[in-house]
Amino acid sequence: MLALSSNPPQSSGKDQTEKHESGTATSEEDHAPLTQTNASSFHMTMEEFKNKFNGAVGKYRLNGLSITRLNMKDSSEQDTGAFEYVFNDKLRLVGTLNSDQKVQEVRLYGTGDVSEPTGGILLTAIATLVLTTNNEYTYNDAQDVIQDIGLLDRDVSQSEFDGTTVRNGLEYRFSIQDHDHSTFEITVAK
């Protein structure tokens, strides 16, 4: 069962577009655009990404999620790279770098029956990634992103879910392919 603490959502006034399983999209006015818009990366190196991720873990005391060392992977595309970190046997992080060696996308892969309680590690990792990619966000803002994706809705399908939201030029997407595989990804919005 997917759940976060039950703080009431607060409006952050940021550019928001959300899309759920029905495929409909809604928008809120853009009050404070950040420099991510029309970018091709998150404007951080792999090491900066790791440090920001660990900074969020420390700031919000999210025990058990620290990244010790990102492992570089060979990439089939010229001038790009990939990195990976395995948190445990059910949760792993994979990222890709552009030709400037800046992070351009990250994916969090969860395995195991999504209808079973996870102790919150999956949603905590998702919230931490949201905080990592948005310096100005608080934990409540990260929860708002997760809510906008639709993950906290009472009628979430535990077998075939696909929810998306766009904020500050980044697309956040969570999908469940079957009962045993889920993916959370952050990419530069197109």
From TrEMBL:
Polar residues bias (residue ranges): 1-14
Start-end of Basic and acidic residues biased regions: 15-32
Domain of life of the source: Bacteria
Residue numbers spanned by region Disordered: 1-34
Name of the molecule in the record: Uncharacterized protein
Organism of derivation: Paenibacillus xylanivorans
